[in-house]
């Protein structure tokens, strides 16, 4: 059978298959051409895979002499612990101060002590690299300064509003 050029397809009715007697070794049966069903070849049977021989045995590894024992030193490792700080207390006070700054500016009463505690904690944490309280102390300092700035802006706004009110009232009285 010659190979077909690429791009040409045959439909199932046009498919030519060998007669059934060539596949099964039987005589051909006469069927009308319109009722013949295409016969497909059986898949080839594969031979059984070969059995591999047992893997070769290797010689046993040589035994090495035991390493000499060294004397253990009696020095103990000294664990350096970081000193305690008030960074957590400063952080709590600064957050409460920030919330309190929106309630008549009372947050300044907590922001100033928080800033003092945060500076003390930062003085300790800067002496010890990777101190666990360093982040809390920095956060407390930043939040305290934000609270103090809110308080100053609120005071300046209230004073300016009072000055503008007095000035506007004095303009309204003069004819």
Describe, in plain words, how this protein is organized in 3D.
The model has no long low-confidence stretch (mean pLDDT 77). It contains 4 helices and no strands. It has 175 residues and is mainly α.
Q: How much of the sequence is in beta strands?
A: under 5%
The shape, in one word, is elongated
Q: Specify the helix fraction band.
A: 40-55%
Structural class: mainly alpha
Describe the largest sheet. none
Order of helices and strands: HHHH
Radius of gyration: 47 Å
Count every beta strand, where a strand is a DSSP E run of 2 or more residues: 0
List the uncertain runs: none
Distance from N terminus to C terminus (CA atoms, Å) equals 119 Å
Mean pLDDT across every amino acid position: 77
Task: Summarize this structure briefly.
With 175 residues, the chain is mostly helical. The protein contains four helices and no strands.
């Amino acid at each position: 059978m010659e190979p077909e050029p690429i791009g040409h397809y045959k439909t199932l009715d046009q498919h030519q298959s060998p007669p059934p007697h060539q596949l099964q070794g039987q005589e051909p049966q006469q069927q009308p051409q319109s009722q013949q069903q295409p016969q497909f070849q059986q898949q080839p049977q594969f031979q059984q895979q070969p059995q591999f021989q047992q893997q070769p045995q290797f010689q046993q590894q040589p035994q090495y002499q035991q390493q000499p024992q060294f004397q253990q030193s009696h020095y103990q490792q000294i664990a350096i612990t970081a000193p305690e700080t008030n960074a957590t207390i400063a952080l709590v006070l600064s957050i409460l101060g920030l919330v309190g700054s929106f309630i008549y500016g009372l947050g300044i009463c907590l922001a100033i002590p928080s800033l003092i505690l945060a500076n003390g904690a930062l003085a300790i944490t800067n002496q010890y690299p990777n101190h666990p309280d360093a982040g809390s102390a920095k956060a407390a300092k930043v939040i305290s300064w934000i609270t103090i700035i809110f308080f100053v802006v609120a005071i300046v706004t209230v004073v300016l509003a009072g000055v503008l009110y007095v000035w506007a009232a004095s303009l309204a009285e003069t004819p």
